[in-house]
Design brief:
Layout lengths: L4 H14 L56 H30 L1 H16 L3 H8 L2 H11 L34 H30 L1 H28 L6 H9 L11 E8 L2 E8 L1 H8 L3 H23 L3 E7 L11 E7 L19
Antiparallel strand pairs: 1-2, 2-4, 3-4
Length: 364
Amino acid sequence: MTESIDDRGADVGSALFDYVVPAGFTKFPVADPSARFPLRPENLDRRQEPGDPSVDLPDYSGPFRADLRFTDFSREQLVKMLEMNDEYMHVWVGAWLEEAEVRFGREERLEIEWLAWRDGMVPKLEGMLREFLPASWVDARLDAAGLGRFVGDRPAGVEELGIRYSGPFLPDPSMLDLSKEELVSILLGCSEYMLQCNQGVSMQIVVRHGFGDMFAIAWDIWSAKVLPAVKDLKARHMGIDGTDVAAFMKDLQIDASALPGKAFDLHFEMPEPDVGIMTFNRCPAPVMFEALGREDILEQNCHAVCPASIEETAKLYNPNMKMDILAIPPRASADHVCCVWKLSMRDESDPEFVPIQLVRKAPG
């Protein structure tokens, strides 16, 4: 018997309200637990806004730009960013689904993927396309998505669902004819689409297997699969390289999982040459869990995923890059930022300093 939308919502609600946060889950230390970080309007995200029209960067191999606008990149580079984000989406969604198959089996993986599209993507995709794509492109890409087949139960005996994840925001050579502002709109839409793809899978895991399995999968896939692959994507498509804090900050500035929009609002600054501060003014986790009165789940969620992913990304750039948490949920009130992260470099006086031996390549 096919469930109604209300029934599916009740399943998610039950999973949220019935979940008991385990005692003793891993918590990362906060530098100063008494510190408070009220939201500052002047620090709201500006990356999506038009910038200086004379700036036309071919990549992001140059210095960190605290006031980065996506229109600072050339149209060719913006299309490359869309190509990068398309690959990023396949890495991230693929990691979730592969791990679900390892833990629960092939049939359950297919069921999770089917329900993620039926209940998560189908109600939202048309609105996304109409918001972010040129109007003349929407109908063809919506038809190609084949949403009409996601009705009722998953077809029996199907070994592959044949979902074209790239389709809705697939980079196209004709995009070079668009303005920078139109390309930035598509870039933001691609990010929202990617987040929905992953949220659909993770929420089905919560409903069917619980928060514990969802947190465990998120923890496992970020460090082992997603982060190394995505760092390589940013090196190839954006020219981001190096071993300093600036390289890390540039990485996060253009990361498709945290672009400005309905879900995220970030602020980036480097008050000193080897010190970076990254502030999440808005994040979907506090919005959802605070509204439900489940700050306890919020706290576990934030400690289960964010510190490890940020710390591991930092170490990929330099094993001596250090992460300090300045703020993390639960927050003092809704008019405070969600979290604040500080990146800096260890020196030889730090007990955790890692000696790095440079190896010269042999000539020829």
